[in-house]
């Protein structure tokens, strides 16, 4: 796990004025994305957020101002996808982040020359930062699993394997898109209660799922498991993720093999990937209830117990067409934290590879819906509306059971605690269009 160093110093400030006190991108964060200027023919390249600006890594790499491991890392991060940079491992990621932090800090002699490397975020567009070869979606929230299970199996809401094994399924990489994604309401087989036969129709129960995305860095050879003690050395960073879900397609198809068309039509990612090193100040103990079975040895380690969980605060907002037309602010639906997850990032990596499965740079994990222990921490409409039985009344008087055409869902995420600078993930937003 990453340890604290000078880049985390809460007193460090930047000559980029907008970074100081920025809620998401102060100098203590420095997340990565792939960008270009909007409506341009520029090539895509890596960038780092600092305040309301982007450090153009292609310009940095070409300037000759870095050397050694930091220069090699910048060369890789300047490419149209970050897979090569991700493959280099924690020492290279940390070397570049340290070099950037020193060049961007207040009082450095680099300020005058580095100003030319900045691009305003207001003129940028983004793409998914890595070529994602494989995407695995997990089910890490016991609160979500129990709430959803209670809707379908009131007498046995949580299946017996849940407390022993991180549950996951193989998602669809081809429909991953960056924040701003709009997609048509999916069609599929629907089977109403009591119906003699299913029908092919647009989904009537569209939902979001509040998740985090985990980008794999250096992979492993086929047949060689990654031990939990070194698992996070293989994790580049985290982003926000919306795993859009069609609940009526899902309820008809999910047995016996799990989700298929109910999930594979769209998944939306935030553009900025916050590195595991930047998240170091926000680690908290990974704990289990005394009544629950403790993880098997391959899913357990002293480091995971002492700091395997991450306190990432998460928020869901809904912006309806009427709100946009009237200039109204989006409605807050729920807030929760990643710290409530039943399985840690390291455990997901260790379990995914224990059978010999090889991970590759740029592979993506979804955490599964992140719901907290209370009703107002639910990460989906399925939970907030109790399976579509209770209308959710919004601040402007509108109501929802599930998403309607034109609805935009926004997730935000951030970390804060006393003695550390607040850092954030920006936001991820996506819109449901008519079928």
Count of discrete domains: 2
Class by SSE composition:
alpha+beta
* β-strand number: 26
* Proper CATH architecture of the largest domain: Alpha-Beta Complex
Q: Can you tell me about this structure?
A:
- There is one protein chain.
- With 435 residues, the protein is an alpha+beta fold.
- Helix 1 crosses helix 2 and helix 2 (68-77) packs across helix 4.
- The protein is globular, with a radius of gyration of 22 Å.
- Strands 6, 7, 8, 13, 14, 16, 17 and 22 form an 8-stranded mixed beta sheet that branches. It has a 5-stranded antiparallel beta sheet with strand order 4-3-2-1-5. Strands 9-26-25-20-21 form a 5-stranded mixed beta sheet.
- The longest helix has 15 residues, at 90-104.
- The protein has 2 domains: 6-127, Roll (SH3 type barrels), CATH 2.30.30.230; 135-433, Fumarylacetoacetase-like, C-terminal domain (Fumarylacetoacetate hydrolase, domain 2, Alpha-Beta Complex).
- The protein is 19% helix and 26% strand.
